[in-house]
Structures are given as structure tokens and as C-alpha cells.
Write a structure and sequence with these properties.
Length: 187
């Protein structure tokens, strides 16, 4: 799996996407990505046999420095369900053409992305298991952008936190080279 350069990343913005498609994948496919497999391994190690690790069990120093730009963290609000970006890596910001830190999913995502993303996140909170998604976007500039996105549940931190309640979501994404519209049509 190859990744795109920073120049290619800035040539495409999800804000300019005209097409979006997502598919859930078996979690075993993270092995095809060094970034995603590293993040899943850190999560698995930190959970120590529990349903999920807590936010306090995961530290930025657990990851290779080159992985950090591909990571993000969301906070989960319950009743009603809302999801806020707490932290986004620089490569995530490039793809969105904005720093999403502090923003809610329901306020920033276009309707077609929000309509897929919100139920995916709610499902992750309910099931408390890792989620791997393949996402494909088509831009008005005729570029296709593809990502594999790994979402991992984390419980809260501090005394009185429920170890079975998802309060954070660790996000990692693996971008795949953009493809021209002609190649997109031929697939």
C-alpha cells in the first residue's frame, strides 16, 4: 500500500468532494497497513484483556513519531450522541483542509458524510469493538481519494469512570494514492 505525498494531499480537499462511498472491512485487513497495524497493536496491548483500554492507557510515546500525523482523537458525548474532535494529526488536517480540533462531527461534515459517519460512530460506541472502514471520495477536480480508517473505542479516565463506557475514540487513517477520474471510471 502506498501513501500520497504532501503535495498530493493539498491538491484534494474533502470540502470539495462530490462523491463519497464507504465500506466496512474485516479488522484483519489492518495488517496491510503499517500505520493501522501499529495502532491496533498499541490498543490491544493497552487493553490488558479488558473490553477496551482507557484513554489513560494510551500515550503518544507508544507510537512511532511517523505515525502521529495519521492519528486523531474524538470525545463522545452521551444523550444525545455527539462526537467532537479533540485532536487531529497534521495529515488528517490536510485531508480536511482544516484543523478539526474542537469541532463536532455534526457541524462540519457534509450531509452525505455525516449520514454515514454518525451511525458508524454510534455503532462503535454500542459494540465497543475496533472498526475498519474503507472510504472513497471523488473531488470536483476529478481526483479520487481513498483511505482506510481505523476507529478504536477507549473508556474514560479518572476515578468513577465506567470501564465499559466509550468516552473517546482513537482514530488512525491510512491514505492511498489519489487516482484520476479516468482510472476511477475504469475500475
Amino acid at each position: 500500500m502506498t501513501t500520497y505525498s504532501n503535495a498530493a494531499a493539498s491538491a484534494f480537499s474533502l470540502r470539495a468532494a462530490t462523491y463519497c462511498h464507504r465500506t466496512h472491512l474485516p479488522i484483519t485487513l489492518v495488517e496491510e497497513s503499517p500505520i493501522l497495524s501499529e495502532v491496533l497493536q498499541v490498543w490491544e496491548t493497552a487493553r490488558h484483556g479488558r473490553t477496551m483500554p482507557s484513554r489513560a492507557d494510551i500515550d503518544a510515546f507508544d507510537f512511532r513519531r511517523s505515525t502521529l500525523p495519521y492519528l486523531g482523537m474524538m470525545s463522545v458525548e452521551h444523550d444525545p450522541s455527539r462526537f467532537r474532535y479533540r485532536l487531529t494529526g497534521t495529515n488528517m488536517d490536510q485531508v480536511h483542509d482544516a484543523n478539526l480540533t474542537g469541532q463536532y462531527v455534526d457541524q462540519i461534515a457534509r450531509n452525505y458524510r455525516r449520514d454515514d459517519l454518525q451511525p458508524d460512530l454510534e455503532q462503535l460506541v454500542d459494540r465497543k469493538v475496533p472498526q475498519l472502514v474503507f472510504v472513497q471520495f471523488q473531488s470536483v477536480e476529478d481526483y479520487r481519494r481513498e483511505h482506510r480508517i481505523l476507529r478504536l473505542p477507549l473508556s474514560g479516565i479518572g476515578p468513577g469512570s465506567d470501564p465499559l463506557r466509550v468516552d473517546r475514540i482513537l482514530i488512525a487513517f491510512q491514505p492511498i494514492d489519489p487516482v484520476s477520474r479516468e482510472a476511477f471510471r475504469n475500475n
